[in-house]
Amino acid sequence: MDQPFITQQEAEKHLRQIRELRKGKGQWPLFSTLLEKVLKHLGFPKATRTQRDMAQFLQFGPKDMILQAFRGVGKSFVTAAFVLWALDSAPQIKVMVVSANGDRAYSFSTFVQRLIAEMPCFAHLKPDKTRKQRESVKAFDVGPAIPADSPSVKSVGINGQLTGSRADLIIADDVEVPKNSFTVVMRERLAELVKEFDNVLKPLPTSRVVFLGTPQTEMSLYNVMVKERGYKLRIWPARVPADVSNYKGNLAPFVLDMIAKGAKPGTPVDPERFDDAVLLDKELKLGKSTFRLQFQLDTTLADGGKYPLKLEDLVIMGLDPKRGPASLAWGKDPRSALDSLQSVGFSGDHFWGPIFVDEKFLAYQGAVMAIDPSGRGADETAYAVVKMLHGRLFLIASGGFRGGYTDENLTKLAQIAKEHSVNSIIIESNFGDGMFGALLKPYLTRIWPVSVEEARAHGQKETRIIGTLEPVIQQHRLVVDMAVVQKDLLDSEEHGPEYSLFYQMTRITKDRGCLGHDDRLDALEMAVGYWLAQMEVDQQKAAADAADEELMAMIDEICEDGPLIIKSDLDAFFAGRKGNGNMVGN
Q1: 113: exposed, middle or buried (C-beta count within 10 Å: 0-12, 13-18, 19+)?
Q2: Contact (Cβ atoms closer than 8 angstroms) between residue 369 and residue 425
Q3: Number of domains in the chain
Q4: Top-confidence residue, 5 or 345
Q5: 529 belongs to a structural domain
Q6: 415: which residues sit within 8 A by CB, 6+ positions away?
Q7: Which tens digits make up the pLDDT trace of 158-189?
Q8: What angle do CA 282, 284, 286 make, to 5 degrees?
Q9: Half-sphere exposure of 362 (CA within 13 A, CB side)
Q10: Are residues 199 and 322 in the same domain?
Q11: pLDDT recorded at residue 543
Q12: What CATH number should be reported for the domain holding residue 88?
């Protein structure tokens, strides 16, 4: 027998159920009670205090809310249980689960379906096959739901088909991930995509949007939602923060209560989940910058001096691999803005081309390839090829290979050296005490015979990198091939922004361990440092040559005066030259 359309009476009943949802009119008036039951079913002893606090916020929180908790605390798991509680409390509601991709959203729905299938207390929510209710991971109905165009639960990726369904509750679970948020253009596009939620959400005072996530960048989407769209944000960091003001009043109340009771900065907020030893290990592996974002959930930007290397100070242009412009000039002319290149820097930091390029091109005065070796871990064996002309440096190639010193990687490095006709290769010898250079030399002998130098780094890495690169970049003396920027963007889309040279460049600070990965930036620093040393030598030689020319001119002048010159005059002259620091031979 065909099911009737929804009646006015049923519609009113539906609205009453929605209004009473937060009061928990199902089997469990409090969601936290159901959460404990679900945990017990899955074999966990009990919810942690952070999970219990999140449960309270989900049930009694505002209409539009953002729940931020440190990675691994179980926010998606807790919210999946909340969806189950909501369906039990008000079976007619429609839920849409949106994630960065469809697979993530389907995993969320699969977990909800698993609980319905396994827990006897939810048997009444199983889809009714006799009524041909939907039961796929993409869209399924609960047993008591009356027929409707929209399923009880629909799962979709943020780039998928959001329209065509209506929802009382939207769960935006990790819609911001590194691959869709590390450039300015990507962040702007993501911000536009989530606006579609307004068209999906039913125009009822009880409809809600719940964002779950961990910020992936200092310009996180979640900050935009709070600032521009009035969302209420609540934050559960992994440790008690040193500066509460960075959270702008959004810290979870129980964290503030910990502070009021004397908890010191750095105290684990949820030691049942992550104690101090675990957090310290994660901080060492991720780097302080990533840990600050993903575990401390601190997206505040410090003053400009904290991040001294800016993309806007680079000069970006298409480069000839053999010749460079005799001169060029940098400037922020609107005509030189490179809007087509996606920036991985902070908001407002973009790539710029030159405002003037000399028509005369000359052969580069030399080319060096720097290599920062790595083992077989997550680090890369990174390289940078930098050429020099008239005191200006040209980054011709940059990249990295995973897998350490494999035959394939060593061959590729030798081929890159040949492709760019490098005159010298410098290798950081801190790794393996020169072993990498010894392994690479046979490949160079066969493919591109060139000298190899070992360079041992001293002092704190971050200070060294900034000290070398900052003056060169700020003086617009580093010119980057546009192809290098484009390749770097593709690499970061494939492997993650932390493997981008320009992401590393804009995120480095003088704090030790601020970057989880800095291999490409380290290779660039070595290459630039090599040329700075050479230019310093050249400047000293040029000064000495100029002094010698001056000396010879004066001697010629003396000789023209004939025998009137006496030995004491020459002795006084040479003594004066020695006093100025220029040693003259006999």
Answers
A1: buried
A2: yes
A3: 2
A4: 345
A5: yes
A6: 447, 448
A7: 988 887 788 999 999 999 988 888 777 888 88
A8: 65
A9: 13
A10: no
A11: 53
A12: 3.40.50.300
Contact, 156 vs 102, CB < 8 A? yes
For residues 480 and 524, give the distance between their C-alpha atoms in angstroms, rounded to a whole number. 11
Assign 230 to helix, strand or coil: coil
Instruction: Return the amino acid letter for 186.
Output: M
Counting every residue written for the chain, the total comes to 586
pLDDT of residue 378: 73
**How high is the pLDDT of residue 14?**
54
How many CB atoms within 10 Å of residue 227?
Answer: 11
Domain check: are 200 and 318 in the same one?
A: no
* Inter-residue contact 385 to 368 (CB < 8 Å): yes
Rounded (10°) angle between helices 75-89 and 31-41: 120
- Under 8 Å CB-to-CB from 161, ≥6 apart: which residues? none
The tokens describing 25, both together, are 């009119």
C-alpha radius of gyration, the chain, whole number: 32
Same domain (yes/no): 343, 454: yes
Range of the domain at 161: 8-237
Instruction: Give tens-digit pLDDT for 111-143.
Output: 999 999 999 989 999 998 888 899 898 999 999
What is the rounded CA–CA span in Å between residue 408 and residue 410? 6
Output the pTM of the full model: 0.66
Residue type, 13: K
Integer distance in angstroms from the first to the last C-alpha of the chain?
117
Which token pair is 455?
A: 């360079």
38 shares a domain with 174: yes
pLDDT of 353: 96
- Asked if residue 581 has pLDDT above 50, the reply is no
Phi-psi region of 374 (alpha: psi -120 to 50; beta: other; left: phi over 0): beta
What pLDDT score does 513 carry? 84
Give CA–CA dist 273/48, Å, rounded: 7
